[in-house]
Amino acid sequence: MKLEKIIAVRTSKTVFRDGDKCIKLFDGDHSKAKILSEAATHAKVEESGLPVPKVLEVTKAEGKWAIVSEFIAGKTLDRLMDESPEKNGEYMERFAEAQLKINATKARGLEKLKDRLSESLFAAELSSSTLYELHMRLESLPAGDKICHGDFAPSNLIVANDGKDYIVDWSHAAQGAPAADAARTYLLFWLAGEIDGADSYLSLYCEKSGIAKTEIQKWIPLRAAERLARGKAEEREFLLYWVNVVDYE
C-alpha cells in the first residue's frame, strides 16, 4: 500500500490514491470500533444498490487505521461548479436528484437518526429551556425509514469519467426522514457561505420531492444543534442563530 498521492485532506483524515484503490487514513486518535462502524455503515449503504464505491478492506498503515475502497476516476461536483459556473443550475439539479435517490431508498440496519440527534443535544451546551424545546420538537417529527446521507454536499458527489454519479463519505449515514437530510444539506451550504446556493438547492429539492419547505425547516434547529455538539468555536454563533429559530411559518 502506497501513501504517496494525496487526493483530499479533511478534518482528522487524509485520503490517498493507490492505483485503483482509495485509502482513507485516519488520525491516530480514532478507535478501532469507530473505524469498523464507519466501514460497516458504508457496506450497508453499498448493499442498498446506491451508486457508491465498494469497501475493500479495513487495515492499518503507518500505525493508523484506514478504510480502503474503490477509487472512482472523475471530478467532484463542487470542482465542476468552480470550473464551469455557467452550468451551476444544471449541476444543482443533478445534485438534488442524486439526493432524492438516496432519500427514496429504504434503510436497513443503519442507526436511527432521531436517536442520534437526541444524544447530540446534550453535547451541544445549550440552556435547559432550549434543550427542552428541541426535545419536544424532535418528538413531534417523523422517524422515517429512508437512507439519510448526513453530510451530502457537492464535494461528496463524484461525476465519473464515464458520466455516472458516485456518492462518497457515508460516515454520517442513518435511517430517517428525507426532510431531515435536506435540512442538513441546507445548513452545509450556509456554512460554506453559499447562501444563494442554499436557497436554490432548497427550492429544487422541495419542487422535485413534493416536500414542503416548512417540513424541512422544522429540522434545521435540530441539525444545527447536532453540528454544535462537534464543538467548533468558529461555527458556534452561526449555529446558535439557527438553533433559536423556532417558527418559520
From TrEMBL:
Q: Which Pfam families does the protein's record reference?
A: APH (PF01636)
Report domain Aminoglycoside phosphotransferase positions: 15-190
Q: What is this protein called?
A: Phosphotransferase
Question: PANTHER family attached here?
Answer: AMINOGLYCOSIDE PHOSPHOTRANSFERASE-RELATED-RELATED
Q: Which domain of life is it from?
A: Bacteria
Organism of derivation: Cloacibacillus evryensis
* SUPFAM superfamilies in the cross-refs: Protein kinase-like (PK-like)
